[in-house]
Amino acid sequence: MKIKLKPHETRIIGALIEKEITTPDQYPLSLNALTNACNQKSNREPVMDLTETAVQATVDDLIKRYLIRAHSGFGSRVTKYQHRLCNSEFSQLQLSPPALAIICELMLRGPQTPGELRTRCERLCRIDSVAQIESELQALMERDEPLVARLARQPGKREHRYAHLLGEEIFDSVAASEDSHIHPHPSGPDRIQRLEDEIGELRQQVRELKELVDLLIDGSTPSR
Questions:
Q1: What is the CATH number of domain 7-83?
Q2: Which of 58, 160, 190, 194 is the most buried (most CB within 10 A)?
């Protein structure tokens, strides 16, 4: 199941998954409710400002790809929408509640650490520990078609972040992570050149800081 979602598509499906879990009495969602769910300021990163027209156009495309279903309830003229990504009669993808919560949070907030996921997924299902999150992440990475990838650790950070593999915008980051894992440091002449360049940049920064300090000292010295 190869799925590559654009950012707006990721937000729409993530919002539908979230509302199916947190507000089942109001699910499926009308266009207005879905737009509000996409644009809400809590539990979203980045915060978006999508118009109903943009949401409708994106939903129409997702319907054509069988990732969203549109239907009208009895006695209602309002069309409502539900996702078909997973855990339905329309999808071969079946996820446990913790795994679904992880995918949902990654779709709504982007790459996160296991600790962040443990805290944020608790609103969607019961999570007992960070170890449970790590176990679920490992299982999602080991699927025949992985749904999650571990990103390279950011400088100064102790924990790795994890990203879902359903969005187009994630693939470049994952590729960069894999490259950095395979070739963590240059060697030979390339390594020496890189070190010399870094030293040159540091020397330039020191010179600029010294000039700034001299200017501050001159400006603070009282005239006689």
A1: 1.10.10.10
A2: 58
